[in-house]
Specification:
The complex is a heterodimer of chains A (307) and B (534). Chain A is mainly α. Chain A is built from 14 helices and no strands. With 534 residues, chain B is α+β, with helices and mostly antiparallel strands. In chain B, 30% of the residues lie in helices and 19% in strands. Chain B is built from 17 helices and 18 strands. In chain B, helix 16 runs antiparallel to helix 17. The longest helix of chain B is centred in the C-terminal third of the chain and has 18 residues. Classes of the chains: A mainly alpha (307), B alpha+beta (534). The interface between A and B is large, with 64 and 62 residues.
């Protein structure tokens, strides 16, 4: 397994290099530049700004300059926020985004697995239909609707929870975590139900039952190990998606995470910020996919043997 | 299941714990929770541009004059008084002897000379050097025609006397000085963290920041909030009643609205456009609709073959029912615009009119050679992606189709694409807005002079240009306004722009906020504001 881990890590290098290079040239193709503003700047000022950020050099020179900086761990200065480096901004937003993703995935796992397993065990009863119907709603309702709805109910009408913020008022982390976690909980519930149903019909479960093992032990010790493999495989892309896709929740709840920098950088043509966050999120996606593959391999002896 | 139970219990416990809202809490501690639109680019007054930046900088730094909280003439700021020579070209500012930087150093005339040298240093890449182009030699220094700053018309006669020499009498010069680009920065602090032209110096960070305003920078959490606290060294500290201001960069207008309703903000930056009519109908006591020095207009590309003819441009303008537009489309107190400069800018009343006369418009189009047999080629309205701009464009499209029989296509583009297309003249009709930087009609009329970067219409009129130059060379305000009105007449007669409506500032404000007065520039100096519940 260690070999696979090292091999995949090495494979990630050309992937990230390709992502960085393609992004570098793609963003230059987009019309408009970082210094275009409603109040047009004079050609003299634009020349000064381009000089200050090395944008007057040829594309190739800029590329070589940028990539050599990245290799040294320097993602350059932000064009939109003078005085701030991209690395500094990633470091500022990342802990918040990680924390939000952590709570969200915790909620998703807790609600998703318990309702999915329950639905599988009580197949074709109301304990199956109700959670699965809710899960379908969770998949269908987008976060930009779910968030404001929760805020309206718990924040404004019931006045139980703050409507926005992160770590400023008691309980302000609850609604964003639930909003972000709910959609993933729905997927996990359906995946775990499907996985469990498949395992519960297999011979080794029947053997366990015929031996007189307690149903609880059968489910937890034997069925869940195999039944939850689809969930584990889903977790890698899910966590990466949570990190890169938390923009909507961060905006609705005014959370100072990385997602907002990522999207706003594109609108502002903040070239270095777009590149920095894209490279960073790509690395996260590669890393979490690798982790989930390894975990699934570890859980499933057959795929472990094949590898 | 047990974990689920624990989780739910914790959730309910936390939820039920009651705490007072930030607005209630702020009242007691004099902490203003300020909805500030978006994350500021930075806090260096010579580099940043934008309204949210202005809201914060006005609490941290102070120029020679400050904007009047009731509108009108500026009030003394770092300068306690000033005199103007008879020819209106030389200003002598007397600085306050008790003016202090937040580190205790005295604010001197040399500080202003160095600061103005900094903004005029080309390699700094400041986007507002033209605020000082009115000074003798300033433009030459900035554009590199001279590298001798002694040739620029600013000089410290002594530590507390600043002499400023202008190229021409500039009646709005005092008003210009409340713009942050002309404010001073602390030389020693800036140089401690970089060179004079360093855009990335860390002097604006909390702990490093030194300036001369009524508040000090306490903390700055990116995309979260900026906290400023009362500066005890400020020369007028006894007037300042707020202890802190918390600025929240809430870019989502719906989130901001919810935060205000939940008592997390004292004010909002704006009101969601779809909610404004509802709040008006409900008589929401927190809704404010204040006059604002801004015009929403359409630019016409006069280089476009279809729009070269002034009769076509006039026909387009006369076929728009502005009253219907503000009543049925914008619906938030906006006023129909019949001039480019908003009326009432420092006593200036434009005398132009733009009729809504579909028949006259049709006749003009016929005179230009367009009729049912030879119709005007399809026109394209360019606007940046926004539901509000789309609604207005749809209404105009309908009016033009109905009143003139013109086919109109709407093209919405991402903000930067829209800007770059406007800049290179790749449009026929494009939506635009302009907000005055200072309270004088010049801030609008100057825009349409030839070779001005923001003209963007291709319209060049030498008579217009010379009248404005003439107006700005006279000291007599009455005479000056007469000339500016004449220029405005030429502009509206040539119609390179179609004014649609005059902006209003709509936002929500808690009734706890006192001394927040409406003014056309929307400048609310925090040193005068306090919190009190009726």
């Amino acid at each position: 397994m260690l070999n696979i881990f090292i091999k995949r890590l090495f494979l990630a290098i050309p992937v990230l290099l390709a992502v960085a290079s393609i992004t570098f040239f793609l963003i230059k193709l987009a019309p408009g530049g970082p210094f275009d503003a409603d109040k047009a700047v004079s050609p003299q000022v634009l020349k000064n700004l381009n000089e200050a950020y090395n944008l007057d050099a040829s594309e190739w020179e800029q590329y070589v300059d940028y990539m050599s900086g990245v290799l040294r761990g320097d993602f350059g200065p932000s064009f939109r926020f003078p005085g701030r480096s991209v690395s500094e901004m990633i470091a500022t937003g990342l802990p918040v985004t990680f924390e939000l993703a952590f709570y969200a995935i915790l909620i998703a796992l807790l609600i998703g697995i318990s309702s999915g397993v329950l639905a599988a065990l009580k197949r074709n009863t109301y304990l199956d239909f109700i959670p699965m119907a809710i899960a379908m709603i969770g998949i269908c309702v987008p976060t930009f609707l779910m968030g404001p709805l929760l805020v309206l109910i718990f924040g404004i009408n019931l006045e139980m929870l703050p409507v926005s913020g992160w770590g400023q008022l008691p309980g302000d982390k609850i609604l964003p975590s639930i909003t972000l976690g709910f959609a993933y909980a729905a997927y996990i519930a359906r995946l775990s139900r499907g996985g469990m149903l498949e395992v519960l019909n297999q011979d080794f479960i029947r053997t366990a039952r015929s031996k007189g093992l307690k149903e609880r032990n059968i489910v937890i010790k034997h069925a869940m190990q195999g039944g939850l493999i689809p969930v584990v495989s889903f977790l890698g892309p899910a966590i990466a998606g949570l990190l890169a896709g938390s923009f909507v929740v961060e905006t609705i709840f005014q959370i100072p995470g990385l997602g907002r920098f990522y999207v706003e950088a594109a609108f502002n043509r903040d070239y270095t910020m777009i590149l920095g966050t894209t490279i960073f999120f790509s690395a996260m996606i590669v890393f979490f996919n690798l982790l989930s593959d390894l975990a699934a391999m570890w859980l499933n002896p057959r795929s472990r043997d094949i590898s | 299941m047990r974990y689920l139970f624990i989780f739910c219990s914790v959730f309910i416990l936390i939820s039920c714990s009651s705490s007072s809202s930030p607005v209630d809490d702020g009242l007691e501690k004099q902490i203003f929770h300020y909805g500030n639109g978006s994350e500021p680019q930075g806090l260096d007054p010579h580099i940043v541009t934008g309204v949210p930046e202005h809201h914060i900088l006005i609490s941290l730094c102070e120029g020679l004059t400050i904007s009047n909280p009731n509108g009108g003439e500026n009030l003394p700021g770092a300068a306690e008084s000033w005199t103007v020579s008879d020819d209106g070209k030389t200003y002598i500012f007397k600085l306050r002897k008790n003016g202090k930087w937040s580190n205790g150093d005295a604010v001197t005339a040399e500080d202003f000379v160095w600061s103005w040298k900094r903004i005029l240093t080309a390699s700094l890449g400041s986007q507002y050097p033209d605020s000082l182009y009115y000074l003798v030699g300033a433009e030459d220094y900035h554009t590199g025609l001279t590298d001798d700053f002694n040739k620029v018309g600013v000089k410290a006669l002594d530590s507390y006397t600043l002499e400023v020499k202008l190229k021409a009498p500039t009646p709005f010069f005092i008003g210009l000085l409340s713009h942050y680009s002309t404010w001073p920065v602390h030389e020693e602090t800036v140089l401690k963290y970089g060179k004079i032209d360093d855009r990335n110096g860390k002097w604006t960070r909390p702990g490093n920041f030194v300036c001369n305003g009524p508040f000090n920078l306490q903390s700055w959490e990116l995309n979260n909030k900026i906290v400023v606290e009362k500066n005890p060294l400020y020369w007028d500290a006894q007037v300042v009643r707020l202890n802190q201001i918390h600025y929240y960069p809430v870019s989502n207008v719906m989130t901001e609205d919810r935060m205000f309703r939940a008592g997390q903000l004292h004010n909002t930056y704006t009101v969601p456009s779809q909610k404004c009519p509802v709040y008006i109908e409900e008589n929401n006591p927190n809704l404010r609709i204040d006059p604002y020095m801004g015009t929403y207009f359409y630019r016409l590309n006069t280089n476009d073959p279809s729009l070269k003819d002034v009769r076509v441009r006039k026909a387009l303008a006369y076929a728009i029912d502005r009253e219907l537009l503000v009543e049925k489309v914008t619906k938030c107190g906006q006023m129909p615009a019949y001039s480019f400069t908003p009326p009432g800018s420092n006593g200036y009343q434009p005398s132009t009119s733009i009729p809504f006369d579909p028949q006259l418009a049709k006749n003009l189009l016929n005179e230009a050679g367009y009729n049912s047999q030879n119709s005007l080629p399809k026109l394209e309205i360019l606007f940046n992606t926004s539901e509000d701009h789309r609604k207005i464009a749809l209404a105009i499209q309908q009016m033009w189709q109905q009143n003139l029989g013109i086919e109109v296509e709407l093209v919405n583009q991402d903000w930067k694409v829209y800007l770059s297309r406007e800049m290179v003249g790749d449009f026929q009709v494009s939506r635009a807005g302009w907000i005055g930087d200072y309270e004088d009609p010049n801030t609008f009329l100057d825009l349409m002079r030839p070779n001005r970067g923001n003209n963007k219409t291709g319209w060049e009129n030498m008579e217009y240009d010379s009248i404005i130059q003439q107006a700005n060379s006279t000291n007599n305000q009455e005479e000056r306004y007469k000339l500016l009105n004449k220029a405005e007449g030429i502009l509206i007669d040539n119609m390179p722009v179609i004014p649609l409506y005059t902006y209003v500032r709509n936002y929500q404000l808690s009734s706890d906020v006192k001394n927040w007065n409406p003014n056309i520039l929307d400048h609310h100096h925090p040193k005068f504001i306090y919190l009190e519940r009726d």
